[in-house]
Design a protein that fits this description.
It contains two helices and no strands. The chain is mainly alpha-helical.
Length: 95
């Protein structure tokens, strides 16, 4: 259907309303497509960030375990060092 024939048969207000409706539908489809692509990109970024955060939590737990081991064993190490120092003095004898 020719545009001029459409205007002649339907009238200017109806033709303009149809044209605006078509423009709105085209614009909505365009925006949805762009937003969907961007949302997918952001979703992928979020998944990568969550994975990295989980890896960091695992690393922190490993470090905490090592720190706890050191913290719990320091008194034992000090006692062992003191015993070694005392036994070393006894073995040397007076000078």
């Amino acid at each position: 259907m020719d545009i001029i024939q459409m205007i002649e048969t339907l009238g200017i207000p109806v033709a303009v309303a149809l044209a605006l409706g078509y423009c709105c539908i085209y614009l909505i489809k365009f925006i949805n497509q762009r937003l969907t692509e961007r949302i997918d990109e952001l979703r992928n970024i979020l998944i990568k960030l969550i994975d990295q955060q989980k890896l960091m939590q695992l690393d922190i737990k490993k470090m905490e375990g090592g720190v706890d081991d050191i913290h719990n064993n320091i008194p034992k190490w000090i006692q062992t060092i003191i015993k070694l120092i005392k036994t070393g003095k006894q073995r040397r004898g007076p000078r």
